[in-house]
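Collaboration report, partner site 2.

Our partner group contributed sequences for two proteins of shared interest, and the home lab folded both. The records are reproduced in the order in which they were received, starting with the first partner submission.
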Amino acid sequence: MSYYEYKATDSLGNKFQDVVEAGEPQEALKTLRNKGLQVNSMRLLKEKGFSLLGWRKKITADDLMLFNRHLSSIVNTNLPIVPGLKVLSKDIKKDSLKLVIEKIRQDIERGCSLKEAFSKHPQVFSEFYVNMIEAGEKSGNLSGILQTLSSYSQAMAGLKKKFEEALIYPIFVTLFAVIIVLLVMVRVVPGVGSIFKEMGVKPPYLTSVLINFSENLKVNLTLLIGIILGLVILGKIIVSGMRKSEKGKLFLDSLLLKLPLFGALFRNVALAQFCRGFGTLLNGGVPILQTLDLLKGASTNQVIARAVHEMKRHIREGGAISEILRTNTIFPETLIWITTVGEKRGNLDETFLDLAEYYDSEVDKAVGLINRFIEPVIIIILGVIVGCVLSLVFVPIYQVITQLGVPGYIGR
């Protein structure tokens, strides 16, 4: 079955905008006409579309943040959830999210609970999200939970954006430097070689090696690019294969945490996610053991996931959270000490949310450090490479011209 969004007018001139479920467009039109509606426009809702940038329409953290805010307002004003979702669907621009909202609305109309309706869309609403919705339903504080989820989505979207920016900038600068060097090697250096041939002068040894290398590079540039792309694809396949096993994920995530310069960024991102997830779930009234189960599944870093698994076993045996944190080196002393204080005061939810804000700021510092370090290093390396190339090709030419006294080149 497909879903069609339509705009129609009834016999009294009232305008309607809604979604109808049907197998074919003709069936949808027939259904609407049987209701006495004159259809003005109708279109198929698509789960994904195509643009010049590739497949899009994926539901993002920003989409969920807006959805949570709108739904929280509906619940907070005591509007019935079904008509509220119907109104909300009209304001949503993205077809994929509009479809999900429509399916949720229909499930609730059939008697499903919010948790049951949301859990049918795991590709959009994680187990973490669904359990928060359940906690809100049981506690009668669904509006507050939705506001919390909205803040959580916003924070996680911001964290993801910072992380991507930290990786994209060095990659962009490095690619730019590589392109500059390649242009010099395949456009400038071969031209210099032809100058030496025209002058009938044999270039110095190092200059000759450089010219031969650039000529070979120019001839085999397409092959070289193909090899590099092949290695990138092969590396991606290997990494994807390793991430399918728990041991492989643990090895890769442990390696990322040990990387110079970038290791601090990966660590702070993982800690910010852990603390925000922990604080959000506890604040939503989710029991501690269930919280740890959800955290393990939601963790993007396997080192954290393993630590959470050990934490659950330790707590079940009557231990404290701070005690198990001390056994894992990924958790800093500051985090352990503040967690200990939070346990004693009985406000772990607030403690972890405060720690999440702290590690968000640490991510900002790590991103700033990477950007400040990478740019001058790349510029220096690029300057050295280009400087060496130019000195190897233009200094010998100048010396030859000076020795031969070629008119037109000097003395003007």
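Second partner submission, folded after the first:
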Amino acid sequence: MTLRGQEFHHNLKETSMGEFTEKARSAANITVGKCRAAAGRVMGSSTMLSKGIAQQRKGKAQRFTAAVKGALGNKI
């Protein structure tokens, strides 16, 4: 982008859309997983408890992926 004949560069770190969506998905999976695990504990359902814990782990993995995408920027 040029500004009065001079080259204008943004110095702000750009957040890629992939990073933003991964962060949103990770937060949702962690929250839903916690709710599902809590419901499994209350109801005594080991299946629901294990699915909730698995969903929390999936959210944590997505959070890591978002951090990697943020560190690498739009290179991936």
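Feedback sent to the partner group on the second submission included the following. Residues 8-12 have pLDDT under 50 and may be disordered. The first strand starts at residue 2 and ends at 3.
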